[in-house]
């Protein structure tokens, strides 16, 4: 038998003053969307909290897994509901709750009762003591610890009685859709899906762009990026993925520019295209997975030169100060790691020089790019006109 109700705890949204309703509504909507395929659920807001009522049988683990991917949720409490508000029923409810929620009963506990219905015969203090005594009588292994209990049994007496004691962790953050929109540069690597996740966690909706280089990169490499976008979408909501055919532009750079500057010049072009796509999609920023010093194009010198390619949208880099292992830890936690390490080629690695510049000079790069004038405008337009769009969900 499953819990009839789940109590959703949220932290930061509670502090948003007047915007609070927007945050709560967005969160409710998100919960409804995500749970819809799993059963008949009613999501409602009451007493500054969100409740999920289950009106059908459901797969508990599947529901908890989905909820633990919804930004804005910081805790999920499975609730037993007692409809008949009498002391006897509440006491039986508490016993049933402990019986079903814990396999082993050798823990310390206390009861924390709240009586919202002041006409109820016992006050909160009496409820704490009497329910505590009933639980002790029923489960011989239990013991009471008022100060540092392993388990606190919450009992809320309203028009019905709510009993809960477990708080399963949510991902925290803010509900997606409450903080604007970003265009995220998604490659097949480990870092960019993590960067996308972290920005979405702050409530930002995402679109994504992938620069593809067929036939130098395979269909499988593209499929890998679509899979990653789909994995990120489990947290970030539906992700519109723009797939740009970058091959001819890349070849033009290869043929016309110094090879030790290829990566920098390529990145600058990617940023320009991403900015254009992002502006058309009403995005306020670009997101990338760069981290200082990880490769030659991610030195502070290189990042400065790459940033200089665009002027409208700021570039956000949530991984910028993280070590590779820290990024890997997050990618494992959010479930993108296994896909990211699949060994398919990336457009950047194919044209990469053996000794790329690590301290590029802006003036030099801009001078090198002059060689592209008159050669890439058509290709640029063609690439923009032939973007393939995939909705990942
Ligand atoms: P990642 O693990 O995210 O692939 P990386 O360590 O391989 O990153 P780079 O190849 O230098 O680093 O790329 C830096 C960032 O540029 C990536 O995190 C990503 O945001 C973006 N990027 C690189 N290649 C592509 C691509 N083919 N399509 C879209 N974005 C890309
Ligand atoms: Mg990469």
Give a written overview of the molecule.
The chain has helices at residues 20-35, 60-67, 87-101, 124-138, 191-201, 219-236, 247-256, 262-280, 300-307, 324-334, 337-340, 347-350, 362-369, 377-385; strands at 5-9, 41-46, 49-54, 75-82, 108-115, 143-144, 151-157, 161-164, 168-169, 181-185, 205-212, 239-245, 285-287, 315-316, 388-392. The chain is α/β, with parallel strands linked by helices. The protein has two domains: 5-169, VC0802-like, CATH 3.30.2130.30; 181-392, HUPs (Rossmann fold, 3-Layer(aba) Sandwich), CATH 3.40.50.620. Strands 1, 2, 3, 4, 5, 6, 7, 8 and 9 form a nine-stranded mixed beta sheet that branches. A six-stranded mixed beta sheet has the order 14-13-10-11-12-15, sandwiched between helices. α5 (191-201) runs parallel beside α6, α5 crosses α10 and α8 (262-280) crosses α9 (300-307). Bound molecules: adenosine-5'-triphosphate and magnesium ion. Magnesium ion is lined by residues 187, 189, 346. Adenosine-5'-triphosphate binds next to α5, β11 and α12.
